[in-house]
Design a protein that fits this description.
- The protein is an alpha+beta fold.
- Helices cover about 50% and strands about 20% of the residues.
- The protein is built from six helices and eight strands, in the order αβααααββββββαβ.
- The chain has a four-stranded antiparallel beta sheet, covered by helices on one side. The protein has a four-stranded mixed beta sheet with strand order 7-6-5-8, sandwiched between helices.
- Helix 1 crosses helix 6 and helix 3 runs antiparallel to helix 4.
Length: about 190
């Protein structure tokens, strides 16, 4: 007897937990990485990591203004503090773009990737090698319009897996992938 009332979402979650796997084939781009990192930056952990840069952005120019108003220090030190403060603001606001750009060479060297998400975890094969991430090593994921970005549980280091939706063979696999991730990880 079917007690789900034909609910499609229930059937998707049921098939995901029954050992279903999803395969993605894609070439990673810096734009994918920037989108995933931007979404993570809006999470609680991402805001906590950006807080020091906001503080530098406030304290640097503020202290420079105090130096200039009291006539202490040289104009060079006030200018340096202002530049440091503006750099803090730039990284707090655009850090995801800087970090994504810094991975451009690594992503280009990866070439085409094949990722398999199943009950055991996420396995990514590319030209540089193979990586298997068990669910126990991962803490959460972020879904954006174009990607699923999966993050490790290590709060001091940013690692995980980038899963662009364009890599799915069938658009309906998005629901299965989402169900797999929801069953194993916290949505950030």
């Amino acid at each position: 007897m079917d007690d789900t009332g034909g609910d499609q979402l229930y059937r998707i979650h049921e098939s995901a937990s029954a050992g279903r796997s999803v395969e993605l084939r894609y070439t990673p781009t810096a734009a994918d990485m920037a989108e995933g990192l931007r979404a993570r930056g809006r999470s609680k952990a991402g805001r906590r990591q950006r807080l020091p840069f906001f503080l530098i952005g406030l304290v640097g120019p503020g202290y420079a203004a105090v130096l200039v108003s009291q006539g202490g220090g040289s104009a060079g030190s006030a200018a340096a503090l202002t530049v440091v403060g503006l750099s803090g603001w730039a990284f707090a606001l655009f850090g995801h773009r800087f970090m994504a750009r810094s991975t451009r060479g690594l992503l280009a060297a990866a070439g085409e990737c094949r990722a398999v998400v199943d009950g055991e975890g996420i396995t990514v094969d590319c030209a540089q090698g193979s990586t298997h991430l068990r669910w126990s090593a991962l803490s959460g994921y972020v879904e954006t319009p174009a990607t699923f970005m999966v993050f490790s549980g290590d709060k001091k280091m940013l690692s995980g897996a980038l899963l662009p939706k364009r890599g799915l063979a069938d658009p309906a696999d998005q629901d299965v992938l989402r169900a797999l991730l929801d069953g194993k990880l916290e949505r950030i």
